[in-house]
Design goal:
Chain lengths: 269, 269
């Protein structure tokens, strides 16, 4: 019997060199305009911490800072438990290549327990993903081909016209289908094309500088999503002279708010 | 002539030991339930980077992770420029005390330039701060006495009754008045009492684990706010078995969106 790794698992496959040192290889499947898709770099960091023998609990918060493009080839991830408390653990992480540090990160892992719980916002209304055409994505960004994307609102602009709103909402899942786990959810939190493209109706130089994701479910709740679509929605709050923010929600089809995520993005216009 | 430092400047006053090493002292004025107000620790990190001779530009993004309480007395801040690009710079920072690392942080500083700019959300409607009574804060949290807080919505609950909304909006400024700068804006991004208190109508064990702030103005725009009130608004999205998120906006009285901020908070209920 031959088993083939999913392209996503290949992209975040890590050799464990001990003492929190992991080695990965970029793959052409997840290439972006420059370097790999930021979401897959973030996912590899989560995978490295998950695999570390010192790790307790599951992801609660992650911040990833993109210092410089990751170039094709080998990358080294170093993770370190900065502090282990009774029910949570703080991590620092760094991705480096021969040319220097490309990525820094901090993460909080934690153990969830019974407590009063509630979700305040409601899931954006959306027709079933099966009723919306899939967006076939074109050449320049290979990583997008690894996702089925069905845009509900704010699709990639095809005409050079300004939009008053930066909101994009889409049904999305990995292609081929793959059960949702924390690395995959992490990558999904960066699945949106830059909000400035939507407002300006065209592509511009833009890139994520820092990404923060808060996870609201444990591994069992996440696994219950299976390979189904999730509803991802994002908007910007302010575009301010070269930097804009983005705030996002990722919902399970069953209306579970799986994650909320924020990023700050460099742009030139 | 005798000049007296503002209590906030005393709280973030740092001795520069060279090579990115700074030494500060906690002050009783900014004490919280356990250790100092998280906002003042975040502000001290911003101040340390601002003072570093390698620094270029002004704050764009900051993430601060609270690993363990800072105990009364001396604390050491170490900051390091992890990468300097043409128009931005990535920093890592750590606060340590004799008992170990208490706080880790990453920051992006950047240089703003002319570019198409816009703010999407509108400022929440609020009567003038002068028309709303100041909330005199009581004993257990000394740091709150350093702020004039005029609650527009979602004030500190005084009766044990659940609320359907976690939204708090308040006019706030430092007391005594002090011109707004980046350390002060950083501290303001953590000025909200825990959202779970509002939802549950009572105080519970709760503490910020990780705080991320995005800055949308440069120093000149910030200085233009002078000593005036800002309008700060925050809400939670999901309370999930021991951790909830908070998302916030800080507006100048002139409707400038100065900063957006997010945090994840531990709670027990």
């Amino acid at each position: 019997m031959t088993t083939t790794l999913h392209s996503f698992d290949t992209a975040i496959d890590l050799a464990d060199n001990g003492n929190g040192q992991y080695v990965g290889q970029t793959t052409s499947d997840y290439a972006n305009m420059v370097g790999p898709f930021g979401g897959v770099t973030a996912a590899a960091i989560v995978r490295a911490i998950e695999r570390n023998p010192d790790r307790i609990g599951e992801p609660v918060a992650l911040t990833v800072n993109y210092l410089a493009p990751v170039t094709d080839g080998r990358f080294d991830i170093t993770v370190r438990a900065a502090r282990t408390n009774r029910t949570n653990q703080h991590w620092t992480a760094e991705v480096a290549q021969q040319h220097g540090v490309t990525t820094t990160a901090t993460a909080v892992f934690g153990i969830r327990r019974d407590a009063w719980s509630d979700t305040e916002p409601t899931m954006p209304p959306a027709p079933d993903p099966e009723s919306i055409a899939h967006t076939a994505t074109s050449g320049p960004v290979p990583w997008m081909r690894n996702y089925d994307m069905h845009y509900v609102d704010g699709g990639i602009p095809t005409e050079p016209a300004d939009s008053a709103s930066s909101t994009t909402t889409l049904w999305v899942r990995q292609r081929p289908a793959r059960a949702l786990d924390f690395p995959a959810l992490t990558a999904l939190s960066d699945v949106f094309y830059p909000r400035v493209f939507l407002r300006r109706g065209r592509m511009l130089p833009a890139g994520t500088i820092s990404l923060t994701t808060y996870f609201h479910v444990d591994g069992t709740e996440l696994a219950a999503q299976g390979t189904d679509f999730v509803l991802a929605t994002a908007r910007a709050q302010r575009f301010a002279r070269g930097y804009f923010d983005q705030t996002a929600q990722i919902w399970g089809r069953d209306a579970t708010l799986l994650a909320t995520s924020h990023q700050i993005v460099y742009y030139k216009d």
